[in-house]
Amino acid sequence: MKVLGICCSPRPGQATFKAMQVCLAAAREQGEGLKTVLIELAGLDIRPCLACGECNSQLACPIEDDFASLIPTLADEEVVGMIIGTPVYFGMMAAQCKAFIDRCVMFRRNGWIFRNRVGGVLAVGGVRNGGQELTIQAVQAAMLCHDMVCVSDGQPTAHFGATVFSGTAGGAERDDFGMQTASHLGKRVAEVALRMRNTNRR
Ligand SMILES: Cc1cc2nc3c(=O)[nH]c(=O)nc-3n(C[C@H](O)[C@H](O)[C@H](O)COP(=O)(O)O)c2cc1C
Predict the structure, then answer these.
(1) Is residue 91 lining ligand 1, measured as CB closer than 6 Å?
(2) Calpha distance 166→183 (Å, rounded)
(3) Average pLDDT in the 28-41 region?
(4) H-type helices in 46-162, by residue range?
(5) Cα 4 to Cα 122: distance, rounded to the nearest angstrom
(6) Whose Cα sits closest to atom 2 in ligand 1?
(7) What percentage of the chain reaches a pLDDT higher than 70?
(8) What b/e readout covers 1-32, taking b as 16+ CB neighbours within 10 angstroms?
(9) Measured in angstroms, how far is the CA atom of residue 168 from the centroid of ligand 1?
(10) Residue 59 contacts residue 71 (beta carbons within 8 Å)
(11) Can you count the helices (H) and strands (E) in the chain?
């Protein structure tokens, strides 16, 4: 069983990445052999979907960029949970995140591959209330279109997902509340995925 964390910041190793590490560590702590895989989009060339329709009947895309290298990891049947992490840009997900999400349409069109995966969202802004919740809900909308099972950050914080801000002195790592929501989100995604594991996933 695997939980994927997709970090959509164009800046490698920065706040979104650090929050995702916290999130995935909490997922692993749920035990039972659960593994995590962190995909960083930083440095990858992932262009927007051109709506050509070529992926209507095949798990492939004619755009020659780095998305193809992610397909086997995203399609892996061992994956039971997916956490998408994005910086907040102008109150919304970063363009890199949107491009990634749109290119994932191939998994919906070819057997609903993400169906019943547990979905969680992590958003990092430069300020405390910079649009993290709106951003999370927009990413969750895409997860719902895949027939995924979206979860909150679980108890005791239990709202929309992980809401982190990087503008505090010392950066995101010093945002104690935000990092708590990141940890709770990873725990909740893993917990629900483990509860669902004996059900028919498709
Ligand atoms: C184009 C742009 C727009 C941004 N808009 C917002 C915003 O609306 N709200 C916010 O809280 N932070 C905003 N930020 C700040 C980033 O969300 C913040 O720096 C975050 O830490 C970036 O994630 P990273 O450190 O993983 O790259 C913006 C940054 C950029 C570059």
Answers:
(1) yes
(2) 16
(3) 94
(4) 67-75, 95-103, 105-109, 132-145
(5) 13
(6) 89
(7) 98
(8) bbbbbbbbbbeeebbbbbbbbbbbebbeebee
(9) 13
(10) yes
(11) 6, 7
Token pair 């893993």 is found at: 190
Atom of ligand 1 nearest to the CA of 19: 26
Q: Whole-model pTM? A: 0.97
Residues 37-50 have pLDDT tens digits of 999 999 999 999 99
What is the rounded average pLDDT for all residues in the chain? 96
Is the pLDDT assigned to residue 202 strictly greater than 60? Answer: no
- In the chain the domains, ranked by start, together with CATH numbers, are 2-45+54-196 (3.40.50.360)
Report the Cα 70 to chain-centroid distance in Å: 14
Tell me whether residue 113 is exposed, middle or buried, using C-beta atoms within 10 angstroms of its C-beta: 0 to 12, 13 to 18, 19 or more: buried
Q: Which of 7, 9, 22, 90 to mutate to test the pocket of ligand 1 (most atoms within 8 A of CB)?
A: 90
